[in-house]
Amino acid sequence: MKLTKLETFRLKPRWLLVRLETDDGFVGWGEPVVEGRAGTTEACVHELWPYLLGQDPRRVEQLWQTLYRGGFYRGGPVLTSAISGIDQALWDIKGKAMGAPIYDMLGGTVRDKMQVYSWIDSDTAEIAVKSAKEKQALGFRSIKMLGIDATGWVSDSETITTLLEKVQAVRDATGPNFGIAIDFHGRAHKSSARTLLRELEPLKPLFIEEPVLVENEEVFAELHRFSAIPLATGERCYTRWGFKGLLEKGCVDILQPDLSHAGGISEVRRIAAMAETYDVAIAPHCPLGPVALAACLQVDFASINAFMQEQSIGMAYNKGQEIDSYLSNPEVFVYQDGFVRLPDGPGLGVTVDEEKVRRASEPDLAWKNPVLHLEDGCITEW
Ligand SMILES: [Mg+2]
After folding, report:
1. What whole-number distance in Å separates Cα of residue 115 and Cα of residue 337?
2. Are 215 and 239 within 8 A, CB to CB?
3. For an engineered disulfide with 155, which of 66, 192, 276, 280 has Cβ 3.0 to 4.6 Å away?
4. Domain for residue 14, yes or no?
5. How far apart are CA 172 and CA 190, in angstroms?
6. Which of 164, 179, 158, 151 shows the shortest CA–CA distance to 122?
7. Could you tell me the distance, in angstroms and rounded to a whole number, from the CA of residue 286 to the centre of ligand 1?
């Protein structure tokens, strides 16, 4: 079996799919994208094609190592996201060729169903309550909300009070056992993060995500010693080497590797195993499309420490398209009581509707995240 063809497709809202084909007609799909840098990632995917052309796609590990080590320079979001999508597509082909789901090739399932959580809108306390109750009515047992708006190096009391009011309102409306995760998006700095964690502790959040930027690893360590709230991060970390320091410093409770950024199925499986040896859970990051989510689930079902899966149905970005829009088996993403069932098809378990993808593809699509400024004109974290 030899790889003969590679194509890429940019799709709304902000997705990029790669399609690999073999000489005997097998097709595999992957989702290699850095949100906001789709063109750069797409160029990188095509730049890697000479390493793949004519190779046996079933040698996933050999090809992963070649792409990772073969170019001398390594790591970073663009190269690792390109490798991630290619890795997903290679596993998809291998699974289809062997007639097996990928989790079966990783040792088989450790669970029967996987808990998923949903984002809520949280512009105001009222909106947050309405959105959380809607998700609860759909069966979700946990939600995630944005923590704070654009903020400076020291947050004012209004920022702190506003967040506390929102979280208290959601807690009151959903009850004591509902999971409330709060994503700070790396917006807070050390001083405000300490205050916010202390004030939020009585409300028992499920976890706080990116309380500060992960590049400030020593601040993470300090916050972890300071607060009992579980800390989560990892969507901006790449490969095992990007997670090693967090685990060694013992400053995180939940790793959130992104299957489309951290190195694909091959690498996130290894990151999960590394995390297990430090008694740390994983909750793969996935605000992306159907192939990325399918890849997450393959790792989740085979990893004992995967505790919860992010997914993008109903996310603000997705207006007009949802993750099942480009699938001919959308039932794989039907949730029941807050869980997704085991996908049982070969490979990734999703059937991409190729005709629809070709029709919807927009070669110049260039989604960009907003750029936030403070009142004084300073740029600040999105
Ligand atoms: Mg996040």
Report:
1. 9
2. no
3. 192
4. yes
5. 29
6. 164
7. 9
Ligand 1 centroid vs 195 CA: distance in angstroms? 20
Give pLDDT tens digits for 26-51.
999 999 999 999 999 999 999 999 99
Ligand 1 center from residue 67 Cα (angstroms): 27
Structure tokens at 359: 């029709």
Q: Minimal CA–CA distance to 294: which of 31, 21, 8?
A: 31
Q: Residue 146 Cα, ligand 1 centroid: separation in angstroms?
A: 8
Q: How far apart are CA 143 and CA 178, in angstroms?
A: 8
Query: Could you tell me the two tokens for 358?
Result: 């070709």
> What residues are labeled active site?
185, 285
Percent of the chain with pLDDT over 90: 93
Q: Phi, psi at residue 336, to the nearest 5°?
A: -135, 125
What pLDDT shows up at residue 42?
Answer: 98
Statement to judge: residues 83 and 125 lie in one domain: no
Ligand 1: centre distance to CA 145 (Å) = 10
Q: For residue 207, give the CATH number of its domain.
A: 3.20.20.120
Domain that holds residue 67: 3-101
Pair 45, 108 in one domain: no
Report the chain's mean pLDDT, rounded to a whole number: 96
Evaluate whether residue 369 is within a structural domain.
no
**pLDDT (tens digit per residue) in 75-108:** 999 999 999 999 999 999 999 999 999 999 999 9
pLDDT in tens, 133-173: 999 999 999 999 999 988 889 988 999 999 999 999 999 99
Structure token digits, residue 21: 């084909």
**Number of domains forming the structure of the chain:** 2
CB 203 within 8 A of CB 229: no
Give the residue from 375, 377, 370, 378 showing the smallest Cα distance to 185. Answer: 370
Handedness of CA 345, 347, 349, 353 (dihedral sign): negative
Ligand 1 centroid–CA 347 distance in Å is 28
Within 10 angstroms of residue 229's Cβ, the number of other Cβ atoms is 22
CA-to-CA distance for 167 and 159, rounded, in angstroms? 13
Place of tokens 């088989």: 108
Residue written as tokens 């390109």?
Answer: 82
Q: What is the pLDDT of residues 190-244, one digit of tens each?
A: 999 999 999 999 999 999 999 999 999 999 999 999 999 999 999 999 999 999 9
Instruction: Please state the separation of Cα 87 from the chain's center in Å.
Output: 16
